[in-house]
Amino acid sequence: MPNDKEEVLPRNQSLPLFNPHVPDFICEIESNKVPPIDAQAEDWFLEARALEDPEIFVEDRDYKKIIDLTRQAAQRLHWKAMLNLASLYVEGRDPLNGEEEAVQLVEKAMRLGIPAAYDRMGTYYANSTGVTGDTTRAYAFWQKAAVMGNPQAMAFLGEKLRAGTDGAIPGYWANIPVAIKMMACALSQGYGPAAFNLHYLYAIPRAANGDEIGDRTPATKQRALNVLHEGVKFGCAECASALAIEFGSPFDLADMLAPYVDKARGERYAVLNRELGFNPNARFPNLDKVLPLPPADLPPWNGDRDTLLHEAKGVRPPPAIPQPSAASLLQKPYFLAADYALHPTGLHSDAPTAPFSAYWQPAQGQGLTEPARLFRKDEEFRHFSVLDADNKSRYGRVTWEQYLTIRHNHGAVEPRAARGLLREVARPEPWLSCACDQACPVSGVWQPWVAADHPLQAIVNQYWRQAWLSQGAPFPRPRRDWLLDLSDGDVMWHLMDASLPDLG
Question: Domain range for residue 479?
Answer without folding.
Answer: 421-497
